[in-house]
Amino acid sequence: MQLSLLRSIYGDGAAEQVSRYAEALDVFRTAYGPGEALIFRAPGRVNLIGEHTDYNHGYVLPVALDRDILLLARPRPDPAVNLVNVESSYAAVSFTISPAIPSAAAGHWSNYIRGPAQAMAQHLGRTLRGFDGLISAAAPFGVPRAAGLSSSSALTVAGAVALAHINDWRPEKTRLAQFCSEAEWYVGTRGGIMDQFIALLAQRGQGLFLDCRPDAEGRYTTSPAPLPADYRILIANSGVHHDNVRGGFNQRVAECRAGVALLRPRHADITHLRDVQDAPWAQLDPHLPETITVAELGQRGIRLGDLPGLAADLSLRVKARCRHVWTENGRVLAALAAMRGGDATALGRLLDQAHASARDDYEISCPEIESLVRAAHEVDGVAGARLTGAGWGGCIVALVRAGAVPDFETHVGRRYHAETGRQASIFACRAGAGAGWVGAGR
Ligand code: GLA
User: Fold this and answer.
1) CA distance 350 to 372
2) What is the pLDDT of residues 170-216, one digit of tens each?
């Protein structure tokens, strides 16, 4: 791959990508024989602020990473998809594209390619061409896995971009992003649209403000968000991945849906929590119970929709969850204003407030994340720090003055190890470019 081309994607980090792309092409040729491969890529993301707001049609402000997933593909004449991985620990997989593709075991990585393949077959209503493919997502260039940095959405988006290209489907980027977010429901989690939108719409060097509520024509509002000069976005990965991410995630979705249903008698048109964003909290608060069970909601005729795994005796903490979403939306708007005004101090304060809300009202933190956030605050030059992503482990994101980055790396790493016995992996986010077709190689 030409360095100039890689520079337009990776900026200063382009030179180190040359050998990574060469290796991927090499493994591809070994697996499938000589000839051309089309190269697609999709980045992971770190969410600066706006957590668990997207599926409530609220605001988010993510930044794409320069860490990505490469998908090399050679189109096939038939609907077969064959996949190998540069990491030999991932066994080869094959499936056939159809409107009903059997899924692999829960959690298997190939489900993130099966999802968009099935959705595209349903959407286009014709037989699709598959491909012989190779995934390259190894460290240090790949998106860290199970870390709340959206490696799974990057895989979904890479698969969708490749399949769309091979099958001559050329939707607008926002349309494709929306398609990808629904395609990912194939794996069972009812996530929102943030991860797929940032993966596709990111512009290098900038964050992305996204209003997750579509207008009457189904279009979304986005705008680039300038990152504060003289500051760096640091990510510290706790290395913890709690098993309850999936169950806990759907439960949070249920709690928000319960809030919507309980507010409906007074807000007839409400479909998502966003619809009451302009009402004062004091007006909403009295109508939201601290807790209510799924069975009690059922007795009031309230069903929570297609959410797998909700037991009747599950207690939902409705008021606190809705309060988080309501206050978080306000913080995202304030964060965008702070970024536009170049006010890193105000932005940092908002990150801290967002963390407190995620920890106390949304209850998605854990001891390891708390240890990282505490350690971050002990470093002089840290404007703010918070958990990022779905929660229950994963990473924190911190806004750090450029000159304080070495102190941050040393102190947070040391302190975290002393408190938890674990190693945090810490790296700076260089806001990367959005997903797409890179070019052809051989
Ligand atoms: C996951 C989901 C996103 C979003 C975040 C929480 O990453 O995929 O849609 O809901 O969690 O903000």
Assistant:
1) 18
2) 999 999 999 999 999 998 877 899 999 999 999 999 999 999 999 99
| Ligand 1 centroid distance, CA of 191 (Å) | 5
Q: Is the dihedral of CA 260, 261, 262, 265 positive or negative?
A: positive
**Candidate of 157, 195, 325, 363 to mutate for ligand 1, largest count of ligand atoms within 8 Å of Cβ:** 195
| CB-neighbour burial class of residue 75 (10 A; exposed 0-12, middle 13-18, buried 19+) | middle
Atom of ligand 1 nearest to the CA of 184: 8
At 22, list the tokens.
């060469």
Distance 388 CA to ligand 1 centre (A): 9
The correct CATH number of 3-226+432-441 out of 3.40.605.10, 3.30.230.10, 1.10.405.10, 3.40.50.300 is 3.30.230.10
In contact, 367 and 420? CB cutoff 8 Å: yes
Which residues have a Cβ under 8 Å from the Cβ of 295 and sit 6 or more positions away?
312, 313
Give the whole-angstrom CA distance, residue 262 versus residue 339: 35
Q: What is the pTM of this model?
A: 0.95
What is the whole-number distance in angstroms between the Cα of residue 32 and the centre of ligand 1?
A: 36
Q: Give the residue numbers annotated as catalytic, written as ranges.
A: 195
